[in-house]
Design a protein that fits this description.
Blueprint (H helix, E strand, L loop, with lengths): L2 H18 L4 E2 L4 E6 L9 E5 L18 E10 L6 E6 L10 E6 L3 E6 L5 E4 L6 E2 L1
Antiparallel strand pairs: 1-9, 2-4, 2-8, 3-4, 3-7, 4-5, 5-6
Organism: Electrophorus electricus (Electric eel)
InterPro entries: OTOR (IPR042801), SH3-like_dom_sf (IPR036028), SH3_domain (IPR001452)
Protein name: SH3 domain-containing protein
């Protein structure tokens, strides 16, 4: 396949992905800025242990169970009137759950046990940070 065919395939796939996201619902903005270990928020900042159970309020959030460990990928800087939320991944007890579930959770429900990245990058949040699919 030559370069132009790769580009055409990429455009078709991209269009398909954009089309699928039109059913997403834009939710309330939780923050204007976030802290991440890298510009894609793909590296783990820290590990935290859940202090108390938390039931997710909508599809952006994850349920927390006391005693579970969470990998933290980003930390929102709060908007006035909102709590401090972090983005993380919690892993389940079963092998099928090992892909992890990613979502937001209130930081006051966890205790950071190990910090991997002390130096973080502050950046603006994106519209995609506040969508429910």
């Amino acid at each position: 396949m030559d370069h132009s065919c790769h580009t055409l395939v990429l455009l078709i796939v991209s269009f398909g992905c954009l089309h699928q996201t039109t059913d997403a619902i834009h939710m309330e903005k939780l923050a204007n800025r976030k802290m991440c270990a890298d510009r894609y928020c793909s590296y783990v900042i820290s590990v935290a242990k859940v202090l108390e159970d938390y039931i997710a309020s909508d599809c952006r959030f994850i349920n927390l169970k006391k005693g579970k460990m969470i990998y933290v990928y980003s930390k929102f800087k709060p908007v006035e009137g909102t709590g401090l939320f972090w983005l993380g991944s919690v892993y389940g007890d079963h092998y099928v759950d090992q892909m992890g579930i990613i979502g937001y959770f209130p930081s006051n429900h966890v205790n950071e046990t190990h910090i991997f990245e002390k130096k973080t990058i502050e950046m603006p949040t994106a519209d995609m940070d506040f969508f429910c699919a």
